[in-house]
Backbone:
């Protein structure tokens, strides 16, 4: 998946939509498929009524600018 200027590292919603469309047109069968994105390989599981995408766990880091966030939200 691409923007006008560069590839997108990973676009989960579009990946799910593409696999759902391929499955609905019977271009892909049920089971686990591999999707290669610029950030690595992802497994996509197609079952009777679902298309599921394997995702890396979320990571969080400390937020050190709470005042800037409050200002951006218009809060005191």
Residues:
């Amino acid at each position: 998946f691409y923007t006008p200027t560069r590839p997108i590292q990973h676009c989960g919603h579009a990946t799910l939509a593409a696999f759902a469309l391929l499955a609905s047109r019977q271009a892909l069968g049920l089971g686990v498929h591999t999707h290669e994105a610029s950030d690595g390989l992802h497994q996509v599981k197609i079952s009777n009524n679902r298309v599921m995408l394997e995702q890396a766990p979320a990571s969080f880091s400390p937020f050190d600018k709470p005042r800037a966030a409050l200002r951006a939200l218009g809060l005191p």
In short: The CA atoms of residues 6 and 47 lie 32 Å apart.
